[in-house]
Structure formats: structure tokens, C-alpha cells
Amino acid sequence: MINISKKLSDLRQKKWRVPGLILISFVALLIFWILVFDLQRIVFILLNPDVFDKFPELLGVFIYSFRLDLATAAFLTVTPILIFSALCIFPSSYIKWIFYSCVCIELAISCSIHAGEIIAYIEWKHKLTSKVFLHLFNGNEVVRTVDNLSTFWFLLVLLSEFAVGFIFFRYLFIKRILVMEFLKKKWDSLFTIFLSIFLVGLSFLFARGGWQQIPINIDSAYYSEDFKLNDISINSTYFFANSYLLYLNSDLEDLVPNIDPQEADSISKNLYQKNHLDSTNILLNSKPNIVLIILEGWSANAIGCMSDTKGATPNFDRLVKDGLLFSNIYATNTTSEIGHTSILSGFPALPEVAISSYPEKHRKLTTLNESLKKVGYNCGYLFGGDLSYGNIESFIKEHHMDEVWDEDKFPSTYDQGKLTYHDEDVFSVFLERINQSSPPFFRIVFTGSTHAPYDHPGSGSQNWSGKEADYMNSLIYADQCLADFMKKAQQQAWYKNTLFVIVSDHSHSCPTHEAPYTVDFFKIPLLFYGDVLNRAYKGIILNKIGSQADLAATLLTQLKINSKEYPYSKNLLDPTSPDFAFISTTRGYGFTNTFGKFIYHFDAKKYHQQTYSEQNFKKAKKCSDALFKSYYEFYKNLEFQ
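Now predict its structure.
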């Protein structure tokens, strides 16, 4: 048998050149942190034995966690490896103790976060977030709510994890690497400096998850529909640090209008009242198949039948002639993850907030697929790219979608773009998945070719020139892909009993609206289409003002399903529901109704747009303030529900 201890002893006695020693240390630090993170998972599992019921799925926490663990380890390695490099150039017991102290401080912080998370999980049922600071700032509350047993377990977990982590560190560094002899040659100091810079750069590459366009985030560790397994898989140190950065950068509460909460609640309830007995019925039956097509960045201002910009969307324009078009619909924000939460859960956006980034909150929302599953629908979602952006994947999976497809499940025979598979291939796979679905089904597809870098087939040929040419040419391509899909869908047996709902996730700059400083910039298409549509509503254009968040109540009402679980979604087909839309922008918000529109910017403290008369502005401002306040109070209290 090989004597491993002897081999290590022989290895230490060799004369290692400084650069080689630094490389060994870099790898050892990464291994050390990954061992610590897996140790923390084991501790969590042992203290939450109910997760053993999920075996063998439970084992996935040690597999799917690796990428996020490596990213976190890379962050934590940057400072120690620089100190270690300095130690190799200037050997000193003082620098050695700085190195020891740096790693031990990082280890203590990581273990403290995890120990706090274990205790908090008992009550909160979610990972430790910046919410903890709301409690820590009120010391009396902490003292009165934390019992002695919780304090004991916190200290026990903290000290135990730190002790075992220190053993790992001692074995790897104090007893192995830091006792190695090293040989310095003439150019080693200069080479070490360049090597250190390279390793720092490599660390940041690992920290962002690689070269891909979208940096890694907590979605990379999601793999289960069981949120507890996902919480174990997600690196606690990374999650808390990300939450803390959001906390530091968020001053939303200071931005919420100063209006009495009860008055705000009364106004918003009046705007969203759901006690109307509306008899509008646009469907031939109340349980059709539903195909929801979420178009990436389609602006109403670039669609021929909705604007003065003609020629880019002839196929969509033809669909409108046989469909029901809502022509005054606005995106709630400017990003895909917020568009998804508004469309699927009927939650209007708040400035500075993407609710999908807060699992402890969005878990309390109800989504369309959850409502439809209760009445027998089979639900699926498909996207040709990486769903980790904005935590869309976690939002979808944790709301119990029956099937979720992303780029990892696409056939290798398809040509993949830089960001996503091209729309023609996405629709092709989507059609295959629908054909394998049992009716009634609710199937969602999210397109991507109209997103930068616009590397769709034929992107070299410029059919459109001038402002936003790349986007407009991608829109031409996407419009043709939509038409091809609809043509193929018409040949399927399920087509005649299917309602197609086509909506954009958000708007986009286009030749006539280049910047999000007007309400009209946020205007998007919303189209109901299909043979299941009542003939009396085909070719109709409704000018009711609303947002994509209103789709939930509108659709569910037509399906004879109660929409009370969507308190901030109104029925667009109810003629008595008020015309209005609230829009959150980057560092601002907007509002529109039949009397005008405005966009307000927090930092500039001015209105980029304001078209109301003086009298109507006061009323509109009151409504928007009430909605802002009501949305915020609802959002703030979600995790406590």
C-alpha cells in the first residue's frame, strides 16, 4: 500500500518555487471553502431530518450547489491569496498571522450566517436575508423574541462549524502548505506579482460563473420543486451577501408616498373591486387549452397595427384582424423577470424591486398555472435560453410548473445563439411539447430573438435601417417565426379548442420611442386569438387602460375561476372596472388613466412627463400614491402571510 503521509512528507521537503506554491495554495483555498459549504449543508440536514424523506433527491444538494459554491469560494479567496503572495515574497511571521486571521474571519462570518439561518429557518421557513437587519436594529425585539434554547443552538452550530472548518484549514495550510520549503529565483518576485494578478482575475471569472453573458446567481443551485431542498442547495453565504447588497442599495421605503395606509388601502380596493357581476363572455367554452406566448421586448410602438411604425410586423397585424386586441396595455417595468411575475401572478411592479429575487416573498403569491392546475390543467413552460436571469427559473419552479424546459434540454442539432436558441427552433420544440400534452393544457413559451445581441438567422441582411435597426430587424424575424408557428398549430388536432394569449414581457426602444421617459414607451401588445374565441369579438380592439398584471384576472374570469387570489389584477373585459395603469421605472414610477399620464423620477425630483390638467392631476396623484403605498405594504408583509 502507498503510504500517503510519507508521500506528503516527501512533497513538503522538496524545494518548491514560489509561483508553484501560490498555485497550490489557490486551489487549496477553493477546496477548503467548498468543503466548508458542504459541511454546512450536512449540519442543516441533520438538524432538519424531515428532508431525508426526499431521498435520493436530497443528494442533489451536493451536486447542483457546486457552481454557486465555487463562485462564493472564488470571492472569498481573493484577499487571502494576495496576502499569501505577499508572504511568499516577504517571508514574515507577521504576514503569516495576517493570512491566518483573514481566513479565520471569513470562516467566522460564513459560519455565523449559516448558524443564524438555521435558527431563523424554524420561524421564517426561508434563507437568512437582509430582513435580519430590521430586527438587529431593534435590540429590544431581539432580546425579547430569541429564547435561550435558540441562542444555545446558534452558538453550538457556529462554534462546531468553525471548529471543523478550522481543522480543514489547519490540515491544508498549517500542517501542509505553510511548512513547505520554497526556492526563490531571480525573477520569482516579479513573476509572483503577475501570477497574483492573474489569479485575482481568474477568481472574479469563477465568481461570475464563467464567460457567459448572464452572471451566475442563486438560480444555478435550483433543481427541485421542493423549496427546502433548493434552500439547502443555495450557498448561504452567497445568498446573504446578495441580499445584503440589495438591502444597502434599496431605499424603497423612503420613496413610498406619505399617505395614510388605511386611505391607500380603501382607494386601491375601490380600483380593484371584484364584486362586479360582469356577464361578458368572449369564449365558446370555459375550459379551452391555453397557449401563452410571452414575447421578448415587443413594443407596441414598433407594431404596425398599434403605431405609426409600419412594416415590421405584418403577420402579427394579420392575427389582430381575427383576434381580440387590448390596445392600451402597459408593461409594469422594463425587465423580463418583473414582466414574468406580473403576467403570471398579477403582481404590479414596485420601483427598485424584482420580487422574483425574494423567494420568501414570491412563494406567497399565486400564479396562473397554480390556479389552472386546481381545475385539471397540465402546465408547462419553455424558454430557449438560461432562465437564471432574475431568478425566473426559481420563480417558475417553486410555483409548481409541471414541466420546465430551458436551453439545457434543447436538441444539440439546433443552432444556438449567444443568448438563446433562435425563435424558429424555440417554437419548433414548443410545438413538440404541446403535442405531447394531455388536454386541457396551459403551455407557456418565452421567445428571445428580439433581445440583444440579435444574432438571429439572417441578421446580416438589413431589411430595416436607421434608429434601432438591429432591434427592428430582429422583430421582423420574430414576427415571421410567430406566423410559422401559428400556421403549424392550425394543423394540430388541439387547435380548435385552444386560446392563444400573446403578450410582451416588457417594451423596448424603437424608432419613435427611444427612452423610457414617457408612459407610452411602456405600451405593449396583448392579444387573444383562436377558433375558441367568440366570433362577435374577432377583429375587435379594446381601448381599456390596464397593465400586463391584469391578464390574470381577465383570463381567469373567462374560465369561470375566482381571481380573488390576485388582489391587484383587474378584469379588462369588465366595462365597469376603472381605466388605469401603474408603471415602475428605473428610479421612478408612472401612472395613466383616461385623463392623462405622468412619469416621475426620484433623483431628479421632477416629472419627465405630465399631461394632466391641474384638477385631474391632484386626483391622479392621489390614486397613484395610494396604489404605490398599497403595493408596498402588500409586498412588505408577504413573507408574514
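The longest strand covers residues 540-547.
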